[in-house]
Design goal:
alpha+beta; Beta Polymerase, domain 2; two-stranded antiparallel sheet; seven-stranded mixed beta sheet; globular
Length: 439
């Protein structure tokens, strides 16, 4: 196994590893080349947790996706017909994008691209930034081979963001927003020529060509960042925030509440992948000082799908219901708390942390996030002893997790740990006293 495969597996939790294995198996069964690419590679090579899995296939992904969903519990979140990519959600909070390797040509800035199938090498050369233009082969004959046609690995080492090709920001102006967000997430500088492209694009007012669907997509991504307020500040300073809302509405944004939410996300990590899919709690807090009419107008301008808009409107009531369940005296064991919160949406959990004044609720959520969830994610399929994707696997895994969480920790052999200096022969304070003093 190559060093890159070892590095990948060490960055993935058990649920993510399972998805990677199943995508690879489905592609192999269809005789299709498959690569892990984009942000997943950037985060792996940069030493960051992998939040989302991005796969590139040298074919239309529809048939492979059908096979995956037939073998692994999951659901389809989104499908884009022109660019041929599909977003999926799996148990354990794992999200994945499976896309066709493609070449995009733009007749004019911000226009609809002409998409043609391509090799993964051609695909990577037309991506947005070099740090996002790398791929790792998962195929049997080249497993572990790193493909990096734009030298993105060097830019990772130099901590800079550089356009993958000269017209990247003109072809797709939504990359202007992505550049600001990515710069703050990674803490990188922007390469000189890329910075000039950015300024020239703003001068030519190309940001006005960004469709509302791309604005909504960027807002979702922003909600999952650790410091969205910094990104919003920069978007405001260069006029890009006006794409989302009028200045009068922007003046009412709840930056103080957003700062509190950011501190919570930093102090209480959500498992291996971080606070994924927490954009609704972000948007709820950010707009909580807006009038109902202003909030409704904002959602309408973003052409938010009805299902997402309904979930956002009902977020507070759902969080209140979950908070009531967390106060229940029937939650006597760690496994009870784990089962309840593991089935809950992350944005509901985050909103309760933000709003709840109940100490028992706060403690139970923090125990879940800091103890129970990491413990469950560390359990490997080898420990369970049942082949993944078999009919009884999920039930056996749940039973194994329950036993591990509810097991009482072994008491340390205190006497065996005492130094042989006479303390065991009556010298020094009693053990009980020594323990109290140490605390």
């Amino acid at each position: 196994m190559s060093d890159y495969m070892y590095l990948l597996e060490s960055h993935l939790n058990a649920d993510q590893n399972r998805v990677v294995a199943e995508v690879n198996a489905a592609a192999t069964g269809a005789s299709v080349n498959v690569f892990l690419s984009g942000g997943a590679l950037r985060d792996m090579l940069g030493g960051h947790p992998i939040r989302d899995l991005d796969f590139t296939l040298e074919t239309n992904p529809a048939k492979v996706v059908k096979t995956i969903l037939g073998r692994l519990p999951g659901s389809m979140l989104f499908e884009e017909d022109n660019r041929r990519y599909i977003e999926l959600s799996f148990p354990g909070g794992v999200t994945a994008q499976i896309a066709m390797a493609r070449e995009e040509r733009y007749a004019k800035p911000g226009g609809k691209p002409h998409v043609t199938p391509a090799t993964v090498y051609e695909d990577l050369k037309r991506r947005d930034f070099t740090v996002n233009a790398m791929a790792l082969s998962l195929n049997r004959g080249s497993r572990g081979l790193l493909i990096d046609p734009t030298n993105g690995q060097a830019d990772l080492l130099n901590r800079q963001i550089r356009s993958a090709y000269s017209n990247a920001l003109y072809d797709d102006p939504s990359r202007l927003l992505r550049l600001v967000r990515l710069r703050h997430r990674l803490g990188f500088t922007v390469e000189e020529r890329t910075a000039r492209q950015f300024e020239n694009a703003l001068t030519e007012n190309l940001q006005r060509l960004i469709p509302s669907s791309k604005l909504l997509e960027e807002l979702r991504q922003l909600g999952d960042e650790s410091a969205p307020s910094e990104v919003l500040d920069e978007l405001k300073s260069n006029g890009l925030l006006a794409l989302f809302m009028k200045p009068a509405v922007a003046a009412k944004l709840n930056f103080a509440g957003l700062g509190k939410l950011e501190k919570l996300k930093r102090s209480v990590p959500h498992g291996t992948g971080g606070w994924s899919d927490g954009w609704r709690s972000f948007l709820h807090v950010l707009t909580e000082k807006l009038s109902p009419r202003e909030r409704s107008d904002l959602l309408s301008s973003l052409t938010m799908p009805r299902e997402d808009a309904d979930r956002l409107r009902k977020l507070e009531s759902h969080a209140a219901k979950l908070e009531t369940e967390l106060r229940s005296p029937t939650l006597r064991k760690p496994s009870h708390i784990f089962k309840l919160l593991n089935a809950a949406a992350s944005d509901e959990i985050l909103l309760i942390l933000y709003e709840s004044q109940q100490r028992i609720v706060q403690d139970r959520i923090r125990n879940y996030l800091e103890k129970y969830l990491p413990m469950a994610q560390e359990i490997t399929d080898e420990e369970i002893g049942v082949t993944p994707l078999t009919p009884k696997y999920q039930k056996v895994r749940e039973e194994f997790v329950t036993r591990r969480l509810d097991a009482r920790p072994k008491k340390p052999d205190t006497a065996a740990e005492l130094p042989d200096n006479g303390a065991r022969n009556g010298y020094g304070p009693p053990l009980a006293t020594r323990g109290r003093a140490a605390r």
